[in-house]
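Appendix C reproduces, verbatim, an entry submitted by the partner laboratory led by Prof. M.T., so that reviewers can inspect both the input and the predicted structure.
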Amino acid sequence: MIGMFTRLFARREPVLTEARPRDAAAIAAIHAASFRRGWSDGEFERLLLERNTVAHRATVGRALHGFILSRLAGDEAEILSVAVASAWQGRGLARALLNLHLRRLAGLGARAVFLEVDEDNEPARRLYRRAGFREVGRREGYYQQDRDRAAAALVLRRDLV
């Protein structure tokens, strides 16, 4: 009996695996909660069906708590989106997803990875800085914050070789 309660209430660690098209709705829900303009289930499903898309997810049991999604083009990749459910933020889940994802991209032949990040998103900027990304460009007024203000998108790059 005690063993049953221990298993029931034990804090389980997330499992990182490849994301599939059937994950589109759960990914879209996390994305919508994380960004000003969330992408639809259909948009994610189409991306996840593309041959050049690489995606990973973090699950605990059947619940999806985070994801990372990239597109490969030749020997370069672009990280399109990364998000972690608010209840799991600050626990290293984004870092674990990013590390796994970068290893997978390198294994698929990517020599460089690019991404864009809102200049005001300090947690994401810190994550990418710690992972070895560096700023290589800037797009002024890219992210609309409200009617009167838009933040720059920082273009970051990390070489994998």
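The chain is about 30% helix and 40% strand. Additional entries are available on request from the coordinating office.
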